[in-house]
Write a structure and sequence with these properties.
This protein is mainly alpha-helical and 163 residues long. Helices cover 71% and strands 7% of the residues. It has a two-stranded antiparallel ribbon with strand order 1-2. A hairpin with a 5-residue loop joins strand 1 (81-86) and strand 2 (92-96).
Amino acid sequence: MTDVEQRYADGEETPLAGYAALATTFAASAGVFAVTAWRRGVRLPDTVPAWDVALLGTATFKASRLLTKDKVTSFLRAPFTSREGHGNANEVMDAGRGTGLRRAVGDLISCPFCTSAWVAGGLVGTYAVAPRAARLLGAGLSAIVVSDWLQYAWSLTAQKAEE
C-alpha cells in the first residue's frame, strides 16, 4: 500500500488506482462519444428544455437505484460486492469487496450517487443522438418513480387504517 493509500485507508484499503481507472474510463468514454458524434455530424441541441432535464434527472435517479439497490439486480453486483443488510422497500445494502479494481467497481455499483454520473452520461449521450428514444426511456423510468411514490402512499394509508 502506498503512502497516499495509507492516508486514506481508515483501517482498510482504499483502491485509489481502481478509482483512477474508473474515472479514466468514464472520461475516455465521454471523449470517444464526443469525437464519434462530431465525426458523424451529430447536431447537438442548442438548449435542453427544463422538462427534459427533469425527465432525465428523474430517470437517472431511478436507474441508479435499480442498479445499486434493487434485490433483483443483485446478480450484477455480486461479483464485486457483499451483502451488508436490507433497506426499505425491499432494497438491499451492498458494499464493495476485494481489492484494487474489483473493490473500486464494487464501491461504484453499490452507491447510487456514484452510479448516477455514469447513468446520466448514458442518458445524456442517448439524448444527444436520439432525443425521442431518450425521452421514452426517461418517461418509463420516471413512471416507475411515480409508481413507487404511489406504493408508499398506499402502504402508509393501509397502516393508518389498521391503527
